[in-house]
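Predict the 3D structure for this chain.
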Amino acid sequence: MKMKKIFIIIGKTMSGKTTIMEKIEDVSTFKKIISHTTRPKRFPEEDGYYFEDNFINGDNILALRTYYPFISEKNKKSTWQYWLDKNDIENVKYPFLITDVVGCCEIVKKYGEKNVTVINVVVSKEEQIRRIEDRSFKEETLRRIEADEIAYKNVKSDYTINTGEKYSLDKNIIRVKNIIEKEIGSSFATSSFSKQIFISNGYENWKKNSGKNGSNSRKH
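Done. Predicted structure below.
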């Protein structure tokens, strides 16, 4: 199989890595690789995983992780499995996925460093705590935050993206876009990329209120 670049986003719980990935997917032809899990849905409409009743091991399984969740009346399972299907990765031109540190290392080992680009989305512990205030599953999230302190202590990546209150989401999306284009040697975004970034920054309202025609590029 001829490999193109595999892009992996890693990051601590509540770092914003999923949001960045979803935004990139919205404005490009990149294929987000979705993990499988035996974890129950946190709410009926939850997506972002293939939710499976049982785990069946096989040659196609990659980055298998087992978690021991907070046991409660609502969640009575003693373990959850998360994994990737290698067929999902190998059947697209530029796979784009999120995994944890252990899963990332396994994928790099399997496909080789030159074929994998790792982007680490960094967030402070204080910001992690702030972001879970409205979450209904705080016990589980707090456990994951503590585990992150160990897992990400000496983590290695090709690029680092900082998130938090003082970092613009849109600027980080553009940084990731630039990283990807540098790695693949060409542009990947659709023509709607700049328009969507401008709209989320309030550019359309500024143009309307100021009477500008929007012909000048906005710097980020």
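The CA atoms of residues 64 and 83 lie 4 Å apart.
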